[in-house]
Amino acid sequence: MKNTIYYGPPGTGKTYFIQNKLKDYTTIEITDSLISSSLSNGKEWLVIALAILQNNNIATNTHISSKLTQLGISTNSTVSTILTRHSTTDTPLGSYDNPRIFVSYNGSWYVDIDLFKSLESNIYNKYILNSSKKRYEFVTFHQSFVYEDFIEGIKPKLNTNSTNSIEYEIQDGIFKNICKLARDCAPQKCAIFIDEINRGNVSEIFGELLSLIEPDKREGQPLELKVTLPYSKVPFGIPSNLDIYGTMNSADKSISNIDIALRRRFEFVPIKSNPDLLLNMYSSTTINPNDIDGINIIELLRTINSRIELLLDSNYNIGHAYFANISSFDDIKAVIVYKVIPLLEEYFYNDPEKVQLILNDLDENGDLDINALYIHKEIDASSLLRYFGDYDIDNKKIYSIKNIDEISKESILKIYEH
Questions:
Q1: I want to staple 7 with a disulfide (CB 3.0 to 4.6 A). Which of 44, 119, 132, 248 is the partner?
Q2: Residues in domain ATPase dynein-related AAA (predicted)?
Q3: Mean pLDDT by 10-residue block, N- to C-terminus, for the chain (418 residues)?
Q4: Where are the alpha helices (DSSP H) in 22-163?
Q5: How far is it, in rounded angstroms, from Cα 47 to Cα 75?
């Protein structure tokens, strides 16, 4: 059994990592015969899609190729070519075929399920919708999430008799329901995934079950422990085949909500920003992250993060996922202007000059560089006010992001080229 929380800066792929694990708790029953027979209609993309779906909708080129070889299936084009030509990701020199159904991330591929459903509704209904077995729950904690939502509580229910009166009944919450499912599915593993676990009041949400989630307190374990639930008055324990996962943004101030009791009961696994992962993300495309219109986005991200660590700490790094879908200089500008700089503004809310330091916008004398991204103008107090009275009013700098249309390639290059 696993009690694991993945934590790290924004954009490092924590939620994606959790979503990718859903396949371990889902059974999609695509048969080998269905994959083999699908080639008869001439849709090579369908053969590839079914091979990915059979692997619970995540697979590498190598896995797909091995599967086709195992089934004795030959395609006119290579697996890599089919994936790229039907990919959702645009590349500068790419040519594509419909449907654009394959999504690339971190060296693997998955199928756009919504598009697949619209194209192959019969296969979707028979093999994915009706035969797939979901053995997990996914929930996001927030400030209003409470024990009654998670474990059990008294909830209103409309009585549909002639009076349409409101009645109240004890209803099970998400966690209690997944515990029931885990008992029914034993010995198969079930899981609950809690995104943004630090945004809720964890002690209040888990209540008396906080002690029961420990591995040795689970049902069937040496120190098995049960509690009597306050509403239903029934004894309750947590099954041993239930895994509990959470994600936590290390740059979020609400991280302080995670108390020592929770830290002792979970393993905390860091998910760090890793610019080198961009090489894997773009490996199945024609894009070279070391040279996108002359800009090295790996070095760009590494330099930004090094300066953040110097001025703040690594918990506030920019995640590599921010640079995961870039194919041109315009894309780079958009990421910097609309994602990176606003995040830096939040980090350095009371000291915006540090945003300029990170972006290398100031020269050796502290003056604004001609290619600065985060610019400022100084308001002269004496030019606006004739009389200061007893107030000590200094000149003030007003900061803003340069208009995206005015940003040159040199504005980006100067961030990491000294």
A1: 248
A2: 133-266
A3: 89 83 81 89 90 86 93 90 87 76 84 90 85 85 92 82 75 95 88 90 89 91 93 94 92 63 83 91 89 96 96 92 92 96 94 96 93 93 85 88 95 92
A4: 32-38, 44-54, 61-71, 79-85, 113-119, 121-123, 147-150
A5: 9
Site of tokens 């202007």: 337
CB burial string 30-54: b at 16+ within 10 A, e below: beeebbeebbeeeebbbbbbbbbbb
Gap between the Cα atoms of 50 and 38, Å rounded: 9
Q: How many angstroms separate the CA atoms of 57 and 46, rounded? A: 13
**What's the rounded Cα separation, in Å, for the pair 284 and 60?**
10
Say which DSSP state 369 is in. Answer: P
Domain boundaries 3-9+135-270, corresponding CATH code: 3.40.50
φ, ψ at 305 (rounded to 5°): -70, -35
- Rg of the chain, C-alpha, whole Å: 27
Residues 336-360 as b/e (b if ≥16 CB within 10 A, e otherwise) read: bbebbbebbeebbeeebebbbbbbb
Strand partners, 59: 109
Structure tokens at 37: 């027979």
3-state secondary structure of 353: helix
Q: What is the pTM for the complete model shown?
A: 0.72
Is-contact 265 214, C-beta < 8 A?
yes
For residue 270, list its beta bridge partners: 7
